[in-house]
Amino acid sequence: MTATLRFWAAAREAAGAAEETVGAGTLADALDEAVRRRVGDAGAGAGAELRRVIERSSVLLDGVRVGRAERASVPLPDGAVVEILPPFAGG
C-alpha cells in the first residue's frame, strides 16, 4: 500500500519536505518510515526531531482525525493521505 504524508508547519521543517510517498500497511508504519528516512539522510538528530514533532501532532487520515487511536492499529488504504498537523500558536 502507498500513502502520501503531508507535513505542516513544524512537521514540514523537521521533515525537510512538504510531502512524500511511503509504502506502509498501518499509520505507525508510515510515520516510522518517514523517521527512518531522516536518519538515513541526515543522521539520527533529524529523525529524532521529526519523531518528537509527530508525537505531539494531530494526524488526519483522508481528512478524518485519527485521535488517540493506537497508530499501529490504524490500517492505511492504498492511496491514503496522511496529514501531520503540529499544534499551532496564535489565533
Automatic annotation (TrEMBL):
<dbReference type="Pfam" id="PF02597">
    <property type="entry name" value="ThiS"/>
</dbReference>
<dbReference type="InterPro" id="IPR003749">
    <property type="entry name" value="ThiS/MoaD-like"/>
</dbReference>
<dbReference type="InterPro" id="IPR016155">
    <property type="entry name" value="Mopterin_synth/thiamin_S_b"/>
</dbReference>
<dbReference type="InterPro" id="IPR012675">
    <property type="entry name" value="Beta-grasp_dom_sf"/>
</dbReference>
<protein>
    <submittedName>
        <fullName>MoaD/ThiS family protein</fullName>
    </submittedName>
</protein>
